[in-house]
Amino acid sequence: MLDLQTDLQRFQITRPIQSIFIGGGTPSLFAPESFERLLNGIKQQTTLADNAEITLEANPGTFESHKFAEFRALGINRLSIGIQTFNDTLLKRLGRVHNASEAQKAATIAHQAGFDNFNLDLMFGLPDAEKFSSQQDIATAISLKPTHISLYQLTLEPNTFFYKYPPPLPTDDEVFNTQQACQTILAEQGFQQYEISAYSQPGRQCQHNLNYWQFGDYLGIGAGAHGKISLALPNLIMRSSKPKHPEHYLRDYVAVSLTTAILPAELPLEFLMNQLRLKQGFSPEHFQRRTGLGLSSLEPGLNLCLQEQLLEYKKNRYTCTEQGWNFLDSLLEKFILV
Predict the structure, then answer these.
(1) Of 60, 168, 267, 332, which one's alpha carbon is 20 to 30 angstroms from that of 230?
(2) pTM exceeding 0.70
(3) CB-based contacts of 21: which residues, under 8 Å, 6+ apart?
(4) In Å, how far are 15, 44, 149, 187, 234 from 102, measured between CA atoms?
(5) How far apart are CA 332 and CA 337, in angstroms?
(6) Is the per-residue pLDDT at 161 higher than 80?
(7) Which residue has the higher pLDDT, 91 or 165?
(8) Are strands 17-22 and 311-314 parallel, antiparallel or unpaired?
């Protein structure tokens, strides 16, 4: 709680907390008593909105009926369950410790524990996977009645085993066709895509993630946590980060925490990298409200994207066209300062 207290004072935070996301790693391994202390400590330090969304990340192998019922009773009202796939062979390739049966059981326990709002994380473009396998994953996930499904393409991150020893992966065309097939199934079953990798039932978008993508503010508490706070626009929008190594964090998280201001010249790209992940795009007013800059700061990139039909402007909103959505990295490159 000292970490939270320090950041609340340093950034002069007085507004109510609208959402809490407890992750990554496997926080569901903690006992309910630990979360009771955590949530009580937060309420003692700051104001928690009455309808705050409180999400707990959970891995399927950690689900116990009584424990998750206690999590729900404490006020945790949303889960994000890391399934990845329901294919046991692929789960082993990914190094996951759970199996498909445990993944399905986790969703059943979530319902029984009183969670009427939870997300299932899935991946596509996996080693040796076929389009049909991903479609099966989507169908299985939908049958478990989540309110939200996240669908990510596998990426080979540096300093990982797969990055050092790349497995055989599907071609770009195969990955794209798989993604389209999965999106069709999700849409037919009422899951609306509102962000690049996120699909929800109506009104069930993840409020915590929406805040990220709308270039909102958030505190990062704990080892490896990142935050972003707007103290004054446009010159004092701060990013903070805490030490990754738990030992370093516990020893002196204040002294080794990093806080840097985003340069005003970098704000247009920073804003678009987040906001254009959303299907809804953005309005000029929202851009000015979040950055303190006028729309002219997005030129000439904005004009180029309109001319090349990567963006369109309708009803006072800039949104990606289908081509812009599929080639978002290329679109964003037009806003990189040279």
Answers:
(1) 332
(2) yes
(3) 55, 57, 208
(4) 40, 37, 18, 26, 48
(5) 11
(6) no
(7) 91
(8) unpaired
